[in-house]
Predict the 3D structure of the following.
Amino acid sequence: MTELRVVEEDFINLNPLQTGGRTTPDVRKAVNSFIDGYSVCDWCLGDVNTIKNPDIQGLRDDIGKFLGADEVILTNGCREAKYAVMQAVCKKGGKVLADVNRHYSTDVAAELAGLKMEFVQNSGSPEFKIRAEDYAKRIDEVSPDLVLLTHVDGNYGNVADAAKVGAICRKKGVPFILNAAYSAGRMLVDNKKIRADFIACSGHKSWAVGGGNIGLLGVNNDFKDKVLKRSSEYKNKILGILGCSARGSSAVALLNSFPSVKKRVKDWGKEVKNAQWFANKMLSINGVELIGENPHQHDLMQFSTPVFYEISQKHKKKGYFLYKFLEEKGVRGLKAGRTKNFKVSTYGLGMEKLKYVFEVFREAAKL
Amino acid sequence: MTELRVVEEDFINLNPLQTGGRTTPDVRKAVNSFIDGYSVCDWCLGDVNTIKNPDIQGLRDDIGKFLGADEVILTNGCREAKYAVMQAVCKKGGKVLADVNRHYSTDVAAELAGLKMEFVQNSGSPEFKIRAEDYAKRIDEVSPDLVLLTHVDGNYGNVADAAKVGAICRKKGVPFILNAAYSAGRMLVDNKKIRADFIACSGHKSWAVGGGNIGLLGVNNDFKDKVLKRSSEYKNKILGILGCSARGSSAVALLNSFPSVKKRVKDWGKEVKNAQWFANKMLSINGVELIGENPHQHDLMQFSTPVFYEISQKHKKKGYFLYKFLEEKGVRGLKAGRTKNFKVSTYGLGMEKLKYVFEVFREAAKL
C-alpha cells in the first residue's frame, strides 16, 4: 500500500492549505466508521441534505444558525458552491465582479458558467489590501450580475471588510457572495452582520474535516428558489449541485467536527495574537518583510525573505536548503525549493511550537 | 460524537449502493493516514491529477490501461463526470439520447447543462431490457448531440450490450458516453472493445473506495481537447471539473483500492454465478418474481414479493416487519418499510452468506 502520511504526527505543519483542516480524534473515529462508499445513505430520504440518521438535516440547521444564513446545503467543496450560485444567479455572458486577490477557482467557476470576470484592484505592495469602498465605484462602472468578495485571501491572508461590501451590495441591489474558505470555521462569520446573499465555505480547508471533499453553501431566503431550485423531474434533488453532493464519510466528518469548530472560533483572538507575534519575530530576521496586511489579522501570512534566497545561491542544496533544513528540524509545509518568499499558517499551533518554528527560521538564516 | 456505523461489521449488507464500495484494510489504513484536509496536496504540481507523491499520475495511467481509455481523470463522482462531458460536447439546447433505465443523475446533469433528454425504451415487464439495436433507430429520429448508455442500471441490474451501442455510435458518428457506475470496478470493462468516447465511473459505488466521493472519467483522444480543456487563465486546471476535484483522502483511497479491484474483476464470473444461484432460490419462495434480466447477469437484482406484502397486511409491525426480521437475523440493506418489491446486491458475499440470507428470507415468508 501507499506510504503512510505522517505530516501531522511527526512534524509541525505550516501549510496554509492544511492547518485548518486538521481532524480531531472524534472526526477520525467517525470517518473510519463511515468509511465505505455511500455509508451516510443507510437512512436516505431522497437527498443527502435531509438525512436524519446520521443527522445531516440537524447539522445544516445548526450551521445555518452558526453562520447566520437562512439555509445551508452541503456541496463537494467551496468552488462547487460558487459555481452553483454563479450558474443560477447570472445571465449567460454576464459579469462577476470580484477582488483581484480572489482564489483561482473563482475564475474557473465563472468561466465554466460562461461569465466574464471584472475586478476590484488591491492597494499594491506591500499590503495588497482590498478596500471595501472600491466596490461601490466598480459596481457602478461594471453593472455586475454578481459580486464576490474573498473574505480572507489565500495569498496574503488579508481580512477584507465583508460587512462594508455587504452594505454596498444591498444599497446597489446586487447579489453578493462571500468566499469564506479561509474565514468561516476559523473565525466567527456572522452573516446577520455581513448580509451576504451567499456564503461559500470549505470544509476541508477550515472546518477540521477529513475524509474527502466537502463544502457548504449558505443561501438567504431571497435566493432560495433560484439557487436551491430542484430538478424539474426529481423534486428532492437540487439542480445546481447535481442532486446529492458530499455523499460519503465527509458529511459525517463535518457532523463530528462542527462541535469543535463552534468552540475554536471563540479562540480566534488568540490565534491572531499568536500570528502577530510570529510575524513580528520573523520581521526581526535580516531583510524579511511581511507581504500583506500589517498588523496582520489572520494565521495565513506571506513573507519576502531575500536572506534565504542569498543563502540558496551558495548552498550546495541550492533552493532546497530551506525546505531540507526545516524538515530536519521537524517543520513542514513550505513549498520545496522556495526561498525568495513563502507562505505559512500559524493556525492551531500555539505559542510553544511557534517559538520553536521561529528559532528554526532564525537558525536557517545563519546558514 | 456520532453513533458509530457497524453495518459492515455486524451485518450482512445487501444494499446495492454499498456492496461495491466496501473498503479493504489497505484503503482504511491509507485513508486514516491521509484523513486531514488537502492531505494529497503535500507535493502538488498544480493539479491533483498530476501529483506523483502519492502517485495519482501513475494511478490514472494504470486505470487508463485497465479501462482501455486514452486518458482518465479524477472527478468528484460519476455524475460530475457525466456533467463535465455533457457541458463540453453538446451545444446549448441540444439533446442527449439515453436508455430509459438511466440513473436520475443523468437527467439532472443534462438539465444543469441546458440539454433535453430523449430516450430509448426498454422491453417492459418483466425483464425491462435495453435492446442495443434500438439506439440506431432513435439516433436517426432524434439526432442527439450525445448518446448515453447505462451499462448496468441501478433498478434491475440489467447488463446492456455496450459494444453493440458503441458500434452503432461509431457508425452514426455520434459521441458516446458509457455510464459504468455499476460495471467498471466490478467486472472488466474494456473500452478497446466497447469504443465509447467517454466512460464515467463511480469510485464509491464500485471501486472499493471509501473516504468521501470520487469518480473517474475516461476520455478518448478524439475528445481530449474538448472535454479536458484547460481554463483559459489557469493552464493546469481542467475547466469542466473546476480544476481539482477529489482533493482529499478519496484519491488515496482509490490508489489503495485499485490493486484489489484489478484482482476482483477476475472473479466476476463467480459473482454472477452466485447471483444467479441466489435469484433462483428466491424464485422458489411463493410468488416471488425477478424484475429484470433472467438468467441474471449482475449482483444487483430486484424482486417482486407479494408474499411479504400479504404478511405486512396482518403483521403488527406492518410494512416494517421484513426489515426488522432481517435486522434481527443480522441482515441489512433493504429499505425499511418495503415489502412489495425490493432490490438487493449479492456482491462479494460468497456462497456461505448467500445461503444464510436466503434461509432468512424463506423464514420471513413463513411469518
